[in-house]
C-alpha cells in the first residue's frame, strides 16, 4: 500500500528491544502491549501507584492533538516506553509515552473508495520490531516500530464487496489475526491469520459455513455466501489450550425469515484453533438473528463456578441481546452454558433453556419481512463494542451498559448487489421508552454469584465508554455526553475523580509505567454510533445533543509529591 511517514524526532526511537511472545503471554506490569492488555481480555492492570487515596490529585501530564475528528476508539498501546495509537483517517502515531514527543506518524494511503460506515480504528498489535495495523480498506500492514516504515502489507479482502476493517489485530502464536467488517453489506465474514514476519496467509476461516461444513445445514441453499457474520472486534486467547475466542456479528440480510434456520455462526462466540483456524467450539446467543445484534465482543476469560459449584475455566460476556452470559470453556473447544441473566430490560428474549442456554423469543417482537416490530434493547444492544473489564481483586465484571432504548423496524425484501447495503428494511427508528429514568450506566457484577453489585446511572446520557480496571482499586471510563473521564471506586462505584476533556470520550483507556511512574491514558474524540445514539437521547429528553468532536490523546499523572504524601 505504501503509506506516508512523517518522522518528527530525527533521533527516533533508539532503544526498542524486540517484543517477545513471552511478553505478550505475561506482560510486564507497566506495559499495555495489546488491545485489552492481556490475552484473557480482562482490561486489568496490576499498577497501584495511582489508587483510591490519591486519584483525586490526577492531573494531565501531557496531551496530543491528533488533528482529526470522528470516533477515537483505540487504546494507547505502550511497550518500551513508546505509545502507539490509531485514529480515524488511517493514522498511526508513535509517541514518547512519558513526554508526548512525537516519534513518527504513519498515514495509510487509502486510494480505494472504502466503505464510509464506521470511520474508526481500534488500535495496533505488536510483536518483535513490528507494529500491526488493520487499515480501513481491508489491508493488513506491518510497520517498523522504530521508524513507522512499512515492512509488508497484505490485502485481506475485496473492498468492492464492501469489506472493511476497524479492529485492532491480535498477535498470537507468531501470527497476526484479524477480522472484518461489512455485516450490513452481505459479506461472508471470516477470521484470518498471517505470518507476522512475512504477511503470508496462514489460515482463513469463514464464520458462515459452506453447505458441506459443520453448521452448513443451518442455512437455506445458497444463503451462506451473503450471510454476513462479521468479526470486527479483537478476539481473546488462551495460550494453554491454544484456542482463540472470537465474536461473530449479525446475520444478513437482517430479516431472519429470508434465511430460515439457526444461521451458525452469526451472533456467536467461536473457539478457533490458533494453529489451523479450525472451529473447535461455539456458543450462539441469538439463533436466526434478526435484530442487528452483532455479538462481536470477545468474552473475558476468567475462572468461575459451574452449575455444580466447581470452579472451571469460564467465559463471561454481556451481549448486545441484553443478557450477561457465564459459559464454560474446555481445552478441546466445546463451550458449555452455565447461566444467563438480563443486565438491561429486554422484551424479545422470554426464556433461556436451563440446560443448553438456547433462548426463546416473543415472536411479536422479532423483525420480519413486511411487518413493523418494536423491540428492546435497541439495534445497538445493551452494550455495543465498548469493552468490559474484570478485576481479579474485586471479582467484579464492569459493564458499560445502555438501557431503555428500543428499535422500531419495518422489514422489506432485499436483493444482493455486490458492495451495496444488504439489510432489508423500509424504516428504522430508535426510541427511548416513555418511563426511562436513565439510559447509560456502569454496572459491576459478581461473576461467581451472577448478581449485580452496584450500578452508576447516567440520567440523561448513553454510555459508550470502554472500561479499564486497575490494581489501585479503581476503574476508569468516559462514554457520556458531558465529556467527562472518570475514576470510580471499583468496590462500590463512587466517583473519586472526574475531568471534562475536549470531546466526548469513547476511547479505550489504558495505564502504563515509565521510569517507575504510573500514567493513565485515553483518547477523547466523539464519533461513530455514539453520536447517532446521543442524538436520539437528546431529542427525547429535550437537551442539547452537541458534543464537540476532535481527537486528543490525554495522559494523566499524580505529581511526585502527591504520590509520596499518599503513601
Ligand atoms: O456488521 C458490521 O460489520 C459492523 C461493523 C462495525 C464496525 O466495524 O465498526 C459496527 C457495526 N457493524 C455495528 O453494528 C455497530 O453498531 C457499530 C458501532 C460502531 C462504532 O464504532 O461505534 N461500529 C459498529
Ligand atoms: Ca452490524
From TrEMBL:
Keywords: Calcium, Metal-binding, Oxidoreductase, PQQ
Homology family: Belongs to the bacterial PQQ dehydrogenase family.
Catalytic site positions: 292
Organism of provenance: Devosia ginsengisoli
NCBIfam families for this protein: PQQ_enz_alc_DH (TIGR03075)
Alphabetical list of SUPFAM superfamilies matching this protein: Quinoprotein alcohol dehydrogenase-like (SSF50998)
EC number of the protein: 1.1.2.-
EC class: oxidoreductase
Lineage: Bacteria, Pseudomonadati, Pseudomonadota, Alphaproteobacteria, Hyphomicrobiales
MF GO annotations: calcium ion binding; oxidoreductase activity, acting on CH-OH group of donors
GO CC, alphabetical: membrane
Known cofactor(s): Ca(2+); pyrroloquinoline quinone
InterPro entries in the cross-refs: PQQ_b-propeller_rpt (IPR018391), PQQ_MeOH/EtOH_DH (IPR017512), PQQ_rpt_dom (IPR002372), Quinoprotein_ADH-like_sf (IPR011047)
Residues the record lists as binding pyrroloquinoline quinone: 73, 122, 166
Record text on cofactor binding: Binds 1 Ca(2+) ion per subunit. Binds 1 PQQ group per subunit.
Name assigned to this protein: PQQ-dependent dehydrogenase, methanol/ethanol family
Ranges of residues in domain Pyrrolo-quinoline quinone repeat: 32-345, 463-520
Superkingdom, taxonomy of origin: Bacteria
Amino acid at each position: 500500500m505504501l503509506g506516508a511517514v512523517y518522522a518528527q524526532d530525527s533521533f527516533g526511537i533508539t532503544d526498542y528491544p524486540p517484543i517477545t511472545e513471552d511478553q505478550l503471554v505475561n506482560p510486564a506490569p507497566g506495559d499495555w502491549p495489546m488491545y485489552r492488555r492481556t490475552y484473557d481480555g480482562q482490561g486489568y492492570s496490576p499498577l497501584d501507584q495511582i489508587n483510591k487515596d490519591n486519584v483525586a490529585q490526577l492531573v494531565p501530564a501531557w496531551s496530543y492533538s491528533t488533528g482529526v475528528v470522528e470516533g477515537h476508539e483505540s487504546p494507547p498501546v505502550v511497550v518500551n516506553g513508546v505509545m502507539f495509537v490509531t485514529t480515524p483517517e488511517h493514522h498511526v502515531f508513535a509517541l514518547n509515552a512519558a513526554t508526548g514527543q512525537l516519534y513518527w506518524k504513519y498515514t495509510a494511503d487509502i486510494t480505494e473508495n472504502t466503505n464510509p460506515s464506521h470511520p474508526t480504528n481500534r488500535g495496533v498489535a505488536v510483536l518483535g520490531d513490528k507494529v500491526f495495523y488493520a487499515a480501513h480498506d481491508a489491508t493488513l500492514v506491518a510497520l517498523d516500530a522504530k521508524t513507522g516504515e512499512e515492512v509488508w502489507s497484505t490485502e485481506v479482502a475485496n473492498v468492492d464487496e464492501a469489506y472493511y476493517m476497524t479492529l485492532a489485530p491480535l498477535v498470537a502464536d507468531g501470527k497476526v489475526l484479524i477480522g472484518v467488517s461489512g455485516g450490513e453489506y452481505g459479506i461472508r465474514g471470516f477470521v484470518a491469520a498471517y505470518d507476522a514476519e512475512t504477511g503470508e496467509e496462514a489460515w482463513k476461516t469463514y464464520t458462515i459455513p459452506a453447505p458441506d461444513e459443520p453448521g452448513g445445514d443451518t442455512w437455506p441453499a445458497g444463503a451462506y455466501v451473503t450471510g454476513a457474520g462479521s468479526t470486527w472486534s479483537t478476539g481473546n486467547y488462551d495460550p494453554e489450550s491454544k484456542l482463540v475466542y472470537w465474536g461473530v456479528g449479525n446475520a444478513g440480510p437482517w430479516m431472519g425469515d429470508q434465511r430460515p434456520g439457526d444461521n451458525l455462526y452469526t451472533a456467536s462466540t467461536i473457539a478457533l484453533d490458533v494453529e489451523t483456524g479450525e472451529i473447535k467450539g461455539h456458543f450462539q446467543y441469538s439463533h436466526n438473528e434478526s435484530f442487528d445484534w452483532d455479538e462481536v465482543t470477545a468474552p473475558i476469560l476468567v475462572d468461575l463456578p459451574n452449575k455444580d459449584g466447581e470452579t472451571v475455566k469460564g467465559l463471561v460476556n454481556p451481549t448486545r441481546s441484553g443478557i450477561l452470559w457465564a459459559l464454560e470453556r474446555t481445552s478441546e473447544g466445546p463451550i458449555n452454558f452455565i447461566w444467563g441473566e438480563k443486565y438491561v430490560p429486554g422484551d424479545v428474549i422470554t426464556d433461556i433453556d436451563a440446560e443448553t442456554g438456547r433462548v426463546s423469543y416473543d415472536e411479536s417482537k422479532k423483525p420480519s419481512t413486511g411487518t413493523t416490530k418494536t423491540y428492546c434493547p435497541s439495534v445497538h444492544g445493551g452494550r455495543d463494542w465498548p469493552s468490559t473489564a474484570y478485576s481479579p481483586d474485586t471479582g467484579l465484571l464492569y459493564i458499560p451498559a445502555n438501557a431503555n432504548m428500543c428499535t422500531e423496524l419495518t422489514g422489506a425484501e432485499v436483493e444482493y448487489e455486490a458492495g451495496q447495503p444488504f439489510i432489508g428494511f423500509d424504516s428504522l427508528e430508535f426510541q427511548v421508552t416513555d418511563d426511562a429514568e436513565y439510559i447509560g450506566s456502569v454496572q459491576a457484577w459478581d461473576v461467581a454469584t451472577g448478581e449485580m453489585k452496584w450500578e452508576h446511572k447516567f440520567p440523561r446520557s448513553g454510555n459508550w465508554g470502554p472500561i479499564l480496571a486497575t490494581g489501585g482499586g479503581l476503574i476508569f471510563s468516559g462514554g457520556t455526553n458531558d465529556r467527562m473521564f472518570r475514576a470510580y471506586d471499583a468496590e462500590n462505584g463512587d466517583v473519586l475523580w472526574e475531568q471534562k476533556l475536549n470531546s466526548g470520550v469513547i476511547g479505550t483507556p489504558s495505564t502504563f509505567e515509565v521510569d517507575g511512574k504510573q500514567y493513565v491514558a485515553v483518547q477523547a474524540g466523539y464519533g461513530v454510533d455514539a453520536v447517532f445514539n446521543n442524538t436520539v437521547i437528546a431529542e427525547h429528553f429535550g437537551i442539547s445533543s452537541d458534543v464537540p468532536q476532535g481527537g486528543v490523546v490525554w495522559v494523566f499523572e499524580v505529581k511526585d509529591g502527591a504520590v509520596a504524601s499518599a503513601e
